[in-house]
């Protein structure tokens, strides 16, 4: 069973991993495993297709026959309806063992010889449980019903055949084949193939927030050739047939074709499908034909129920319940044997009712009777109670202010409801890096183009400033430096006034604002941080050459860029701007249409002319790479090694590279190079030489800081004047890059399906024809765009991707030696820069390009189109096609993007490590980056020993593991020698240096194999932390699985991206961080938090509490049941083991169900064995719950023993007090019950660590309800409850002092051992808990006063850190150190 | 066990945004309320049990329990009780022959008598009990074998008693009037007490048979069918229990108001005893005047009409004469238990005090270096 579940789970997980990977083009997606896919998915029946016709088209007949089998758009998510509710619900409920047990007992009671109580009474527990759950189910179902009703009755405009127009219809009336007309902001009612869009380019944008929580816009496309055909789409003229696959749950895949009446087939893919429950955005109107409706839509098919995980504690509990069963069996057996023997020895007694029964048979009957009588021993109600308690715990977790994120206005989301206590037992934490430890708010940091590094110092400075400020933020408010505040203000995206205020006013304004916004600074700042990049002055200077008509041909000075370099730079930024899937929108333009391209300052021809006018043309220079042109001037190029480490072509004036050269330029050449500063402010100036603006001589002033600064300011000011564009990117890297490009005035202004509008510095808006986008793919690890260059008209491929891949693909053209040399050099330099970026912890990307010959492109295009239109294996074919294109790339440059640590990550990690949680970082990043991040978030300490395992083959890997193991062993031995000498108690703090294992993806693959697994485990177990870099999602989940299974520990995985989903699902507790990468991780998680730092409170406080609460409650529950049931058992010794009870049956049944049920719940929800501050302050306390000290087998047996003792006292004190007297059955039962109640309630007072007014109230109410109930019974129940007739018993009893004397004695005697045990345990063996608990009080009261006095006497105002000055802590720390 | 779904709404897959599609509406912050309850910061008492905190409680309990125990013990000791076993199991016993010969089927009654001497006079009201041993009135089948509705005077139950009464439900096709095994096994010995004065004459001690049952039983729980008027008519059509000599309406010939279901001897018997050795109140000997004791010391003569066989199941029959106090009959257990527990607490208190002084040094070390 277990195994089966696991397989199921695995399948689902793989499926989800799959869909994730398609839907989100996140880095490191799960590798495609279609074979696995086919195995697991029940929906993918190959060969089955569905055909869809227009409902009102000419194919009426066919439509009728075909569509009959298609589901309509009515959805019904309710489980029951009015008629079926009772039978269905009962059927559902009796799937639970607990209820079956109750039912069995109730039925057993109908057997006359066995009957213990009245038949109705045994039904009560069952009825109560069934009713409670049924009510809950009914409410839930009703809510669903209302929701369904609302959804089904939503209005949508559907084409009506009779009226020949679009009419309003309800969602539920929509049929497959209907034509649906949607306007902007409407919700899509079914899965629709897009046939018409008001957008001229046939594009439509949808927001999938309802589906997956992503708010960015996704682009959808009208079926490709429809756009060309139709002027205005009309449903009546739609005669085509749509063939597509049967409904399935893969959100990211849709395959099919549309066959026109002419027989032409057009491929349909995911891009044509509008999914149900998404919202149309930025598009005026849309028409589509419904292909899947109702429950067959992809959104509905992706519906899965809530997750159910069984916690460790519950498994443990089941074991103990089994013990209870054994106990019950023993007790019943004792009674059966006893009864048999007793009967055997009896001769003709007057009280024997049915004599004909043999003792053995009677004994057998008594066995079953006793099972009914002692049924309470099996704490079935415990399961219900645990559910309720967990709901309460979830409620408090959900309401915790510390887990609330002010900026995102999001609370913690608890999706799994039954593993709260697992939070308290985490031993291994597996964390993703990006977005989990870091913000995943990417900020462009540095770049290297053409082998020249641009450090972006000011940018870096700004980032650093921000970080410093952040750390100091809590202490004091900081004044911001002017230069940087200007920039931060200048680029605030929306709503920023674009007035041309002088710098000074801007300054002061910003300062004020910063101070005002102090509280909200972090978030406000973050967004600005991401959007704004301070350009590097050097690069800006070089870029300016573009807008400057001056020719950089006389390469005497190192500061001057060569034309080749300039083309590289331009291409680089162009690539940054266009090689992405960013959607542009701006507040001034609600519709996301490409702005009219007519605005450029001059026509393309003009620009071309202009370029030709220059001695260099960036675009023609591009072609220099192609062999013929290189050949034309082979000897003319040579390297010079400039001081600034930049390479420039020193091109002698006589041999110009390309293009025509005007006399004007040559004359300019001879003159000194001028820096054209403000030309770009008035674009009209381009091409003219304005002597006014020649400000500095470059050859003399290499980098004039002032000038550069001015330059930068000019840039930023200009950016202010830009339209305020908002970029919505699927992944934050892209956004960062687009913003970076924008900082260099290479602005992406708009995007449509087949064109892009880009501002280029010095050129103005350009329309670039977009031929293809090859989206990001985790196999290729890169994405490309194929565009037709607006100027040169060439087909150019721009690629960006992971350095490991791109560097491999970037091949130098083999022809020109010199060019080759240049490229090798660029590559070498770039590699160097990449390495240094990685060391700094930056994310690196490579930007490359490739120019395609027309014929080459044609050939590729043909095959690509073929791939796109195929139904089978489309993904593979497209992948292959993309790989074919992405070869022989020319490396343009590299970028380094910084991803800052989230706030309080180091503190959190430190706290978690102190809590004894081993932290593993599993990241797809490079080793250097990973180690760097590990350092900065204090996973690595300076004196830790780093063990790295990188190897190429399995044998090496085995050897390395062995070696490392030995090394660790050696060190540990020496350490233990030292520590044993020092007689140290706490090993964790004693270890001076611990080991950190760093392992890369490939080695991990070897290490995870069967034969090396144990070595790897052994090694990793001894390390404080493990860092796995370059790991795939599959590996992540493998690691989690391995550790969880082999070490038998409870694992927690935390991640934010789609690549973490498998890991999150594999771990015992999966935590999703609702970050920048969409909701997929959150959707598959058990808890979703918004910040990594929340983990510490969640685990250290809530986890600890939940675990100890639940464990204590379970123990208490078991105690309570054993104690109460034993009272009945002891009585059997005095009634011939006949199964009599000395209590009224009502009281007996209700005692557990009512009188003593609420206090444990309160106990389980509210108890705090330690205060939150204490738990946060001393994470070591977490180890108590981690190793499950509360709920160990010995505690179970101690509890049972105590229960036995208490029940003995509780039975025998009243027994002896009443022995031989004229007491009736109920008269004996009355003090027994009352004292049992007192004992049970007071026992809880002893066991609970906190008592609030709620506890007191509940305890009083519980006690009161018992007395109220029995008194009422004794007054009014005359014949209600034969044979144990309670009338008059309790009233008489409670009027007698003896009753109270008996109760008092019983209660005190029963509780003495528990009190004594607690007191002695706490005194003789004081755990950390008790040592520290008084600290709390002391802290608040006396200690505070004393501290004040002490402070005064020492005239020190500064508070000392906790722990160092705390007297309560002294003994423990002392012992640890000595 | 039960996969409840707290967040069903999200799980439903319904577009949750669909509802808010009409307009943005008022954006409500999701920030949790900062209340003491929600943030789990309610002021709380934190009982931490250590030797230091617990020992006062032990001393206090000891100090309270010991005097109570002494009081209870003294009270119990002041109660006078005399017990006579008249089972007749012993061959020397006067009732031996009766015990041997008598069975439920006997028609003639056997009479025997027991002589005994009270050493001390019984000053206050004396309660006369009969006691039975090894009689399991608490046997599950036996306890159930009654019909409370019938006993409460319900007409339909009278004619059609509950099935629980089987096999004592009907006799010769007629319903048995107090049906069931309990009623059937009604204790039917008659006990008479005589005081033998100094000159040897037997003076019958007046035994009051009213007031031996609980008030609630007599007035609420047990009622005769059809009012208390003509009981013979009321019980027409019913049969007497198999073991009974007389029908229920003729239980007490001396007092017509003490007949039927409200016969007090019957009521007392019907309240089933908790334990196999029990006593039941038989009669009350009321104090006549303040000067003379209720039962002066001396020789007494107990006359027994031996109707109730107990030897078959090794039972015992006793007669108990006892005065009672506010705490009921004589039972030294409670007093002794109180004293024991009290002294134990005191002792433990001392032990804890020592432990506290030896180990619990936390408070003394809590000092700030100055």
TrEMBL record, chain A:
Keyword Coiled coil among UniProt keywords: no
Domain named P-type ATPase N-terminal: residues: 64-122
EC assignment: 7.6.2.1
Domain P-type ATPase C-terminal positions: 1082-1327
Key words, A-Z: ATP-binding, Endoplasmic reticulum, Magnesium, Membrane, Metal-binding, Nucleotide-binding, Translocase, Transmembrane, Transmembrane helix
Compositional bias segments (type: Low complexity): 646-657
Biased composition range(s): Polar residues: 630-645, 658-668
Source taxon at top rank: Eukaryota
SUPFAM superfamilies named in the record: Calcium ATPase, transduction domain A, Calcium ATPase, transmembrane domain M, HAD-like, Metal cation-transporting ATPase, ATP-binding domain N
Localization terms from the record: Endoplasmic reticulum membrane; Membrane
Cofactor(s) the protein requires to work: Mg(2+)
GO cellular component terms, A-Z: endoplasmic reticulum membrane; phospholipid-translocating ATPase complex; plasma membrane
GO molecular function: ATP binding; ATP hydrolysis activity; glycosylceramide flippase activity; magnesium ion binding
Catalysed reactions, semicolon-separated: a beta-D-glucosyl-(1<->1')-N-acylsphing-4-enine(out) + ATP + H2O = a beta-D-glucosyl-(1<->1')-N-acylsphing-4-enine(in) + ADP + phosphate + H(+); ATP + H2O + phospholipidSide 1 = ADP + phosphate + phospholipidSide 2
Membrane-protein topology: Multi-pass membrane protein
Region (Disordered): 630-668, 1359-1378
Binding residues annotated for ATP, in chain numbering: 432-434, 734, 776, 800, 843, 923-925, 1030, 1036, 1059-1060
Active site: 432 (4-aspartylphosphate intermediate)
Principal subcellular localisation of the protein: endoplasmic reticulum
Binding site for Mg(2+): 432, 434, 1056, 1060
Cross-referenced InterPro entries: ATPase_P-typ_cyto_dom_N (IPR023299), ATPase_P-typ_P_site (IPR018303), ATPase_P-typ_TM_dom_sf (IPR023298), ATPase_P-typ_transduc_dom_A_sf (IPR008250), HAD-like_sf (IPR036412), HAD_sf (IPR023214), P-type_ATPase_IV (IPR006539), P-type_ATPase_N (IPR032631)
Record's keyword annotation contains Methyltransferase: no
Transmembrane segment boundaries: 98-117, 321-341, 361-384, 1114-1133, 1145-1166, 1190-1216, 1228-1246, 1253-1278, 1298-1317
Single biological process term from Gene Ontology: phospholipid translocation
Family, similarity comment: Belongs to the cation transport ATPase (P-type) (TC 3.A.3) family. Type IV subfamily.
Protein name: Phospholipid-transporting ATPase
TrEMBL record, chain B:
Subcellular location: Apical cell membrane; Cytoplasmic vesicle, Secretory vesicle membrane; Golgi apparatus; Membrane
Any one biological process term the GO annotation gives: phospholipid translocation
Signal peptide start-end: none
UniProt keyword list: Cell membrane, Cytoplasmic vesicle, Disulfide bond, Glycoprotein, Golgi apparatus, Lipid transport, Membrane, Transmembrane, Transmembrane helix, Transport
Tree of life domain: Eukaryota
Family of this protein: Belongs to the CDC50/LEM3 family.
Protein name per Swiss-Prot or TrEMBL: Cell cycle control protein
Organism listed in the record: Monopterus albus
Taxonomic lineage: Eukaryota, Metazoa, Chordata, Craniata, Vertebrata
């Amino acid at each position: 069973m277990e195994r089966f579940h696991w397989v199921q789970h695995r399948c689902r997980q793989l499926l989800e991993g799959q869909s994730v990977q398609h839907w989100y083009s996140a880095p490191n997606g799960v590798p495609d495993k279609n074979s696995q896919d086919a195995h697991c998915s029940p929906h993918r029946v190959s060969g089955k297709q569905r055909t869809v016709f227009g409902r009102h088209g000419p194919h009426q007949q066919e439509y009728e026959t075909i569509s009959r089998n298609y589901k309509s758009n009515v959805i019904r998510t309710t489980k029951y309806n009015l008629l079926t509710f009772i039978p269905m619900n009962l059927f559902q409920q009796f799937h639970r063992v607990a209820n079956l047990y109750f039912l069995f007992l109730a039925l057993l009671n109908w057997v006359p010889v066995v009957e213990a109580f009245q038949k109705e009474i045994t039904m009560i527990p069952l009825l109560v449980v069934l009713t409670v759950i049924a009510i809950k189910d009914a409410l839930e179902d009703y809510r669903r019903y209302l929701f369904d009703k609302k959804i089904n009755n939503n209005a949508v405009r559907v084409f009506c055949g009779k009226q020949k127009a679009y009419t309003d219809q309800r969602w539920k009336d929509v049929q497959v084949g209907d034509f649906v007309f949607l306007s902007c902001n409407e919700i899509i009612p079914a899965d629709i193939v897009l046939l018409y869009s008001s957008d001229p380019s046939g594009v439509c944008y949808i927001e999938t927030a309802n589906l997956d929580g992503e708010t960015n816009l996704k682009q959808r496309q009208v079926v490709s050739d429809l756009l060309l055909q139709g002027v205005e789409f009309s449903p009546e003229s739609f005669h085509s047939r749509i063939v597509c696959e049967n409904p399935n749950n893969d959100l990211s895949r849709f395959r099919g074709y549309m066959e026109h009446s002419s027989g032409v087939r057009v491929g349909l893919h995911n891009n044509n499908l509008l999914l149900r429950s998404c919202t149309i955005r930025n598009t005026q109107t849309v028409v589509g034909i419904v292909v899947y409706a109702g429950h067959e839509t992809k959104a509905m098919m992706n519906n899965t129920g809530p997750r159910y995980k069984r916690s460790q504690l519950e498994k443990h509990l089941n074991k103990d319940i089994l013990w209870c069963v054994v106990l019950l069996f023993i007790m019943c057996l004792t009674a059966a044997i006893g009864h048999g023997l007793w009967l055997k020895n009896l001769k003709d007694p007057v009280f024997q009712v049915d004599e004909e029964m043999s003792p053995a048979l009677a004994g057998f009957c008594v066995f079953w009777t006793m099972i009914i009588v002692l049924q309470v021993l099996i704490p079935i109600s415990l399961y219900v109670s645990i559910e309720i308690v967990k709901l309460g715990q979830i409620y408090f977790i959900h309401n915790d202010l510390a887990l609330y994120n002010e900026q995102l206005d999001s609370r913690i989301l608890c999706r799994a409801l039954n593993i709260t206590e697992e939070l308290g037992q985490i031993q291994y934490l597996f964390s993703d890096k990006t977005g989990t430890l870091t913000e995943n708010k990417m900020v462009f940091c540095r770049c290297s183009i053409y082998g020249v590094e641009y450090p972006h110092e000011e940018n870096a400075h700004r980032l650093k400033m921000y970080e410093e400020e952040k750390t100091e933020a809590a202490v004091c408010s900081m004044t911001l430096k002017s230069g940087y505040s200007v920039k931060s203000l200048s680029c605030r995206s929306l709503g920023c006034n674009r007035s041309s205020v002088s710098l000074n006013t801007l300054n002061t304004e910003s300062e004020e604002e910063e101070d005002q916004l102090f509280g909200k600074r972090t978030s406000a700042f973050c967004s600005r941080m991401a959007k704004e990049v301070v350009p590097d002055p050097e690069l800006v200077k070089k870029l300016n050459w573009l807008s400057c008509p001056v020719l950089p041909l006389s390469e005497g000075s190192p500061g001057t860029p060569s034309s080749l370099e300039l083309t590289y730079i331009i291409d680089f930024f162009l690539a940054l701007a266009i090689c992405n899937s960013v959607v542009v929108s701006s507040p001034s333009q609600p519709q996301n249409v490409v702005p009219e391209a007519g605005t450029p300052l001059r026509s393309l021809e003009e620009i071309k002319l202009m370029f030709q006018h220059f001695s260099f043309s960036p675009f023609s220079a591009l072609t220099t790479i192609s062999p013929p042109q290189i050949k034309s001037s082979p000897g003319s190029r040579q390297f010079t090694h400039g001081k600034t480490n930049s390479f420039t072509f020193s091109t002698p004036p006589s041999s110009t590279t390309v293009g025509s050269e005007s006399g004007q330029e040559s004359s300019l050449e001879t003159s000194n190079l001028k820096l054209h500063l403000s030309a770009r402010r008035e674009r009209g100036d381009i091409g003219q030489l304005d002597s006014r603006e020649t400000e500095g001589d470059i050859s003399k002033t290499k980098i004039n800081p002032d000038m550069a600064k001015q330059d930068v300011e000019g840039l930023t000011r200009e950016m202010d004047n830009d339209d305020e564009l908002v970029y919505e990117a699927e992944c934050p890297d892209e956004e960062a890059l687009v913003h970076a490009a924008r900082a260099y005035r290479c602005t992406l202004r708009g995007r449509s399906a087949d064109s892009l509008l880009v501002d280029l510095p010095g050129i103005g808006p350009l329309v670039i024809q977009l031929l293809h986008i090859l989206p990001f793919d985790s196999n290729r690890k890169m994405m490309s765009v194929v565009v037709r260059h607006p100027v040169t008209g060439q087909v150019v491929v721009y690629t960006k991707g992971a350095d490991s891949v791109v560097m491999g693909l970037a091949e130098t053209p083999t022809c020109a030696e010199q060019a080759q040399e240049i490229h090798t050099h660029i590559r070498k330099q770039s590699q160097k820069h990449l390495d240094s970026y990685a060391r700094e912890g930056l994310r690196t990307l490579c930007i490359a390009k490739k120019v395609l010959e027309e014929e080459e492109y044609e050939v590729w295009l043909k095959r690509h189109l073929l791939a796109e239109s195929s139904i089978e294996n489309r993904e593979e074919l497209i992948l292959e096609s993309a790989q074919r294109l992405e070869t022989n790339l020319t490396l343009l440059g590299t970028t380094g993007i910084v991803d800052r640590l989230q706030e309080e990550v180091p503190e959190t990690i430190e706290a978690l490590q102190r809590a004894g949680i081993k932290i593993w970082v599993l990241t797809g990043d490079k080793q250097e980056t990973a180690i760097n991040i590990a350092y900065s978030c204090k996973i690595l300490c300076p004196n830790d020993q780093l063990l790295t395992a990188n190897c190429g083959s399995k044998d090496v890997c085995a050897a390395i593991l062995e070696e490392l193991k030995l090394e660790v062993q050696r060190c540990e031995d020496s350490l233990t020698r030292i520590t044993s000498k020092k007689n140290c108690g706490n090993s964790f703090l004693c270890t001076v240096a611990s080991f950190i294992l760093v392992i890369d993806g490939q080695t991990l693959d070897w290490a995870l194999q069967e034969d090396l697994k144990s070595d790897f485990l052994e090694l990793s177990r001894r390390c404080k932390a493990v860092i796995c870099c370059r790991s795939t999602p599959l590996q992540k989940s493998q690691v989690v699985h391995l550790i969880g299974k082999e070490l038998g520990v409870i694992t927690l995985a935390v991640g934010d991206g789609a690549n973490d989903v498998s890991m999150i699902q594999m771990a015992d507790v999966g935590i999703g961080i609702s970050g920048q990468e969409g909701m997929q991780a959150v959707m598959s998680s058990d808890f979703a938090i918004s910040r990594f730092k929340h983990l510490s409170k969640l685990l250290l406080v809530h986890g600890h509490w939940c675990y100890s609460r639940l464990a204590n409650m379970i123990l208490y529950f078991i105690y309570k049941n054993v104690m109460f049931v034993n009272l009945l058992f002891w009585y059997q010794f005095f009634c011939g083991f006949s199964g009599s009870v000395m209590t009224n049956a009502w009281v007996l049944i209700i005692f557990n169900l009512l009188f003593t049920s609420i206090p444990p719940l309160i106990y389980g929800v509210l108890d705090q064995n330690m205060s939150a501050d204490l738990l946060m302050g001393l994470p070591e306390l977490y180890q108590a719950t981690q190793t499950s000290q509360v709920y160990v087998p010995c505690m179970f047996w101690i509890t049972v023993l105590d229960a036995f003792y208490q029940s003995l006292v509780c039975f025998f004190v009243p027994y002896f007090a009443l022995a031989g007297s004229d007491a009736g059955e109920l008269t004996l039962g009355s003090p027994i019950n009352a004292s049992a109640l007192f004992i049970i309630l007071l026992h809880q007072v002893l066991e609970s660590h906190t008592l609030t007014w709620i506890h007191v109230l509940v305890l009083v109410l519980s006690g009161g309800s018992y007395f109220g109930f029995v008194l009422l019974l004794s007054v009014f129940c005359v014949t209600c409850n034969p044979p144990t007739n309670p009338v008059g018993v309790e009233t008489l009893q409670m009027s007698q002092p003896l009753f109270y004397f008996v109760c008092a004695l019983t209660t005190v005697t029963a509780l003495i051992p528990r009190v004594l045990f607690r007191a002695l345990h706490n005194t003789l063996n004081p755990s950390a808990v008790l040592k520290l608990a008084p600290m709390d009080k002391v802290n608040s009261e006396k200690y505070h006063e004393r501290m004040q006095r002490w402070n005064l006497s020492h005239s020190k105002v500064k508070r000392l850190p906790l722990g160092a000055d705390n007297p309560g802590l002294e003994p423990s720390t002392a012992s640890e150190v000595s | 066990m039960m996969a409840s779904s707290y967040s069903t709404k999200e799980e439903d897959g319904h577009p949750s945004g669909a509802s808010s599609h009409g307009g943005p509406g008022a954006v409500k912050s999701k920030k949790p309320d900062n209340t003491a309850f929600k943030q789990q910061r309610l002021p709380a008492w934190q009982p931490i049990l250590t030797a230091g905190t617990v020992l006062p409680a032990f001393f206090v309990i000891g100090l309270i329990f010991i005097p109570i125990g002494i009081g209870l013990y003294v009270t119990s000791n002041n109660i006078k009780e005399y017990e006579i076993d008249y089972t007749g199991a012993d061959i020397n016993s006067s009732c031996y022959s009766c015990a041997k010969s008598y069975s439920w089927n006997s028609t003639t009654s056997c009479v025997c008598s027991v002589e005994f001497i009270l050493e001390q006079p019984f000053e206050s009201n004396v309660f006369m009990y009969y006691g039975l041993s090894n009689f399991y009135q608490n046997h599950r089948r036996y306890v159930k074998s009654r019909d409370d509705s019938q006993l409460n005077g319900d007409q339909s139950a009278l004619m059609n008693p509950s099935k629980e009464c089987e096999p004592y439900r009907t006799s010769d096709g007629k319903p048995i009037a107090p049906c069931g095994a309990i009623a059937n096994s009604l204790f039917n010995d008659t006990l008479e007490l005589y005081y033998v004065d100094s000159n040897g004459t037997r003076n019958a001690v007046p035994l009051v048979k009213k007031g031996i049952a609980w008030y609630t039983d007599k007035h609420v729980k047990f009622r005769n069918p059809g009012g208390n008027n003509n009981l013979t008519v009321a019980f027409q059509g019913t049969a007497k229990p198999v073991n009974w000599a007389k029908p229920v309406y003729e239980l007490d010939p001396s007092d017509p108001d003490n007949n039927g279901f409200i016969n007090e001897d019957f009521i007392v018997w019907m309240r089933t005893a908790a334990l196999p050795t029990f006593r039941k109140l038989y009669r009350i000997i009321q104090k006549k005047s303040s000067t003379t004791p209720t039962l002066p010391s001396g020789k007494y003569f107990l006359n027994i009409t031996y109707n109730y066989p107990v030897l078959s199941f090794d039972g015992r029959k006793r007669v108990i004469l006892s005065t009672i106090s506010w705490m009921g009959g004589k039972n030294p257990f409670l007093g002794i238990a109180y004293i024991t527990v009290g002294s134990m607490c005191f002792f433990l208190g001392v032990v804890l005090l020592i432990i506290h002084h030896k180990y619990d040094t936390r408070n003394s070390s809590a000092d700030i270096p100055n």
